[in-house]
Amino acid sequence: MWFADIGERIAWSVVAVWALVATVVLATRRTALGRLVPAEVRTPVLVGAGVTSLLLVAQAAVVDRVADLGAPGLADRDVWAWFVDHRAEPVTFVMKGVSVLTDIPQMTVLAIVAAVLLWRIRRRPEAAVVLAATIGATLLVDGFKRLYDRVRPPAAARLMTENNPALPSGHALGSIVVLGVLAAVVVLATRHTLLRVAVVVTAALGVITIGVSRLYLDVHWLTDVVTGWLLGGAWLAVCVTTLCVVTRRRALASMGSVGQVGAEDAPVGRAESPA
């Protein structure tokens, strides 16, 4: 994995740039220069960039550890052995179904359907973000698999046939991005707390179940799945940040329109002529 050390340096460089930019922005937020960046943009961008940077560093650290060991580590071997020893036919049937239904092509179809629905209800920026998130996830999976080129667990223990490299898990990365961005769209579009919690919990359980299915089927090491979650989470943070900015700017524009209409509809007083 020749790219592991380079990736870690890039990730730490991203953190350093974020820290510098965040310091400058926060230090100048009350000045004329700071007011050039509206608060509804500044806050989500700074937070989103920070989360993205930290996840990239965590992902790079996991990959660097894998590269340094040169073989599956203790956690990888223990988790692999545990799933091999705890197989059951009904569970195998379910896990195969989960894995087949949540591969990158199926997740792409889900994202396209969601984007079409969002477009029809005039949520066009959200539709664009959903599509961009999915395309980005596909490119990340393909690109980083080629860069890392890690061998999968022993073929004799696998319950499904996989021929491409193991790291990162495409199922883990694709699911956290697609389910995550769809959950974010719903959370930002509704004010109902119970619905928000239900959507987030459902998406999280879906992502975890999909990752576990890949471990159960022994087509991935634990670090493959964790790397997929971390790398996908970094890209998801970028997409959610974009959604937050779009939502905040739309809300402010709506408030401005309402205020303007109210001002136009207000009665205009007539000056009385002097007696």
Layout of helices and strands, plus pairs?
Blueprint (H helix, E strand, L loop, with lengths): L2 H25 L11 H31 L4 H12 L3 H13 L2 H17 L3 H25 L21 H20 L3 H24 L5 H44 L10
DSSP strand count: 0
State the secondary-structure class.
mainly alpha
Helix/strand order, N-terminal first: HHHHHHHHH
Main β-sheet description: none
Q: Per the principal axes of the C-alpha atoms, what is the gross shape?
A: globular
Total number of helices: 9
User: What is the gyration radius calculated from CA atoms?
Assistant: 24 Å
Low-pLDDT stretches: 269-275
* End-to-end Cα distance: 93 Å
How helix-rich are the residues, as a percent range? over 70%
Strand content: under 5%
